[in-house]
């Protein structure tokens, strides 16, 4: 295993789509929220369970920045989940308590110029900021994960608004990330098309790959049936479409639901491929890249973690499909072997 010694783009991270849209949320405004939820636990809980990528939709609303679904292109009371500052403070608390963790935030940005950087400031997050001038040149590797941690550059923030990179230090997502089509249109068998804003999936100028895997209308039952074997199979489809590259971010709805190892297992598979070319992170040896070893048959059943991590830090780690793991850290390490070896991806080259 490589711990944190590889470039950031040689790791895969469990990511939640619409991380803020939680089942049962009651609006701070007293309004009933009628927009559909995508997750079942708080952002703080997601981070403790090993989620390391958060997808947030930010709007100007009620004289503040809110995380919200839109109605006719606007945030209104019955689609507004929570002020952005509330969630950003949760991220700050997590980073402060877990000094070896790295979190990436993807912002679908409808906020006015200056408002987002103001709430990041107010949340105390700028001290963790990965600066835009450290972003890689097109087609180049990111800094080593261990160097990002040592420099305290542990929060990567991407915006969908190009102009904010120069004015607010928010990295323009499409300069650095390719992303497949979200929703049901992106789930066609045998295809992994890029979303409209993204460069093509096989563009190697962008060093990071985000793979969406969720339906247009959020469905817990669909997540239960598809967040394991079909998700792992989807990794290979998008690998083929992405110039033979494995995804760095695996974005799902209802990340704790599956009929098997779930999104954490899929992230273990991607980490095995990215870090050592093996079927799963549990098969990587401690010696060198490209050397794989089957875990012993006495190893425990599948870890409910998205292998991204080294020795567990005080709280976090990618979550279990059925019951969240108590901990997991950013420096990836092999998870305990699954009950059945994850052979769904096959033996494709990394």
Written description of the protein model:
The chain has a single domain, classed as Alpha-Beta Barrel (TIM Barrel), CATH 3.20.20. Residues 296-350 have low confidence and may be disordered. The protein is 22% helix and 14% strand. Helix 8 packs parallel to helix 9 (262-276). The longest helix has 15 residues, at 262-276. Strands 1, 2, 3, 4, 5, 6, 7, 8, 9 and 10 form a ten-stranded mixed β-sheet that branches. The chain is an alpha/beta fold and 350 residues long. One of its GO terms (biological process) is lipid metabolic process. One of its GO terms (molecular function) is phosphoric diester hydrolase activity. This is Phosphatidylinositol-specific phospholipase C X domain-containing protein.
CATH class: Alpha Beta
Structural class: alpha/beta
N- to C-terminal distance: 15 Å
| CATH-defined topology | TIM Barrel
Shape: globular
SSE pattern: EHEEEHEHHEHEHEEHHEH
Low-pLDDT stretches: 296-350
The profile of the biggest β sheet is: 10 strands, mixed
Radius of gyration: 19 Å
Number of strand elements: 10
Tally of helical runs: 9
Instruction: Estimate what percentage of residues fall within beta strands.
Output: 5-15%
- Would you identify the CATH architecture? Alpha-Beta Barrel
CATH level-4 homologous superfamily = Phosphatidylinositol (PI) phosphodiesterase
Proportion of helical residues:
10-25%
* Domains (count): 1
The overall pLDDT average reads 86
């Amino acid at each position: 295993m490589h711990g944190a010694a590889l470039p950031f783009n040689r790791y895969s991270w469990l990511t939640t789509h619409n991380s803020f849209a939680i089942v049962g949320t009651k609006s701070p405004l007293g309004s009933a929220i009628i927009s559909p939820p995508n997750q079942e636990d708080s952002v703080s809980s997601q981070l403790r369970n090993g989620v390391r990528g958060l997808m947030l939709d930010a709007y100007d609303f009620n004289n503040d920045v809110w995380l919200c679904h839109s109605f006719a292109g606007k945030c209104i009371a019955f689609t507004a989940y929570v002020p952005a500052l509330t969630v950003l403070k949760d991220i700050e608390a997590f980073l402060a308590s877990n000094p070896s963790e790295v979190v990436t935030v993807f912002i679908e940005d409808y906020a006015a110029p200056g408002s987002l950087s103001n709430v990041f400031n107010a949340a105390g997050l700028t001290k963790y900021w990965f600066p835009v001038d450290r972003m890689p040149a097109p087609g180049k590797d990111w800094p080593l994960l261990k160097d990002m941690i040592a420099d305290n550059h542990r929060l990567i923030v991407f915006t969908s608004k190009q102009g904010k990179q120069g004015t607010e230090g928010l990295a323009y997502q499409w300069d650095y990330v390719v992303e497949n089509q979200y929703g049901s249109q992106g789930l066609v068998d045998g295809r992994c098309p890029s979303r409209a804003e993204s460069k093509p999936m096989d563009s190697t100028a962008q060093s990071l790959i985000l793979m969406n895997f969720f339906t247009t209308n959020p469905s817990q039952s669909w997540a239960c049936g598809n967040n394991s074997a079909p998700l792992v199979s989807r990794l290979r489809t998008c690998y083929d479409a992405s110039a033979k590259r494995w995804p760095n971010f695996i974005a799902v709805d209802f990340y704790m639901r599956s009929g098997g190892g779930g999104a954490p297992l899929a992230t273990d598979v991607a980490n095995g491929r990215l870090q050592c070319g093996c079927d799963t992170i549990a098969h990587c040896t401690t010696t060198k890249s490209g050397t794989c070893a089957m875990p012993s048959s006495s190893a425990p059943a599948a870890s409910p973690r998205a292998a991204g991590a080294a020795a567990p830090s005080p709280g976090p780690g990618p979550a279990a499909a059925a019951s969240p793991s108590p901990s997991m850290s950013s420096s990836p390490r092999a998870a305990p072997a699954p009950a059945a070896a994850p052979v769904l991806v096959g033996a494709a080259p990394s």
